[in-house]
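Please fill in the sequence for the structure shown.

STRUCTURE ENCODING:
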């Protein structure tokens, strides 16, 4: 079963230096989909240090649970976030876009 449109839970504001959890969920897909997160239209790599764009960010990303955890939140983490669910059946589905202000 292809995934439906995922739901992104993004805090509208996050305190710099604190912990922020962004969640992505999708209930229809079978097999259960994996999740990717995007910031300002750019996919977030699994390891922020591997990318010049995100090397100043400190986060962990779980493609299975859909959790994106910033610890700590930095000023550069402000942006527009959305997630994408895919399970190799049908096409990947994107969530709405939500802004998080650090």
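FILLED IN BY: designer on duty
SEQUENCE:
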């Amino acid at each position: 079963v292809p995934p439906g449109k995922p739901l992104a839970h993004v805090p509208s504001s996050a305190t710099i230096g604190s912990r922020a959890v962004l969640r992505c969920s999708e209930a229809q897909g079978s097999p259960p989909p994996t999740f990717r997160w995007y910031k300002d239209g750019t996919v977030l790599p699994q390891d922020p240090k591997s990318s010049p764009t995100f090397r100043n960010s400190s986060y962990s990303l779980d493609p299975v649970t859909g959790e994106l955890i910033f610890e700590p939140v930095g000023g550069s983490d402000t942006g527009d976030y959305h997630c994408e669910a895919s399970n190799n059946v049908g096409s990947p589905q994107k969530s709405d876009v939500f802004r998080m202000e650090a």
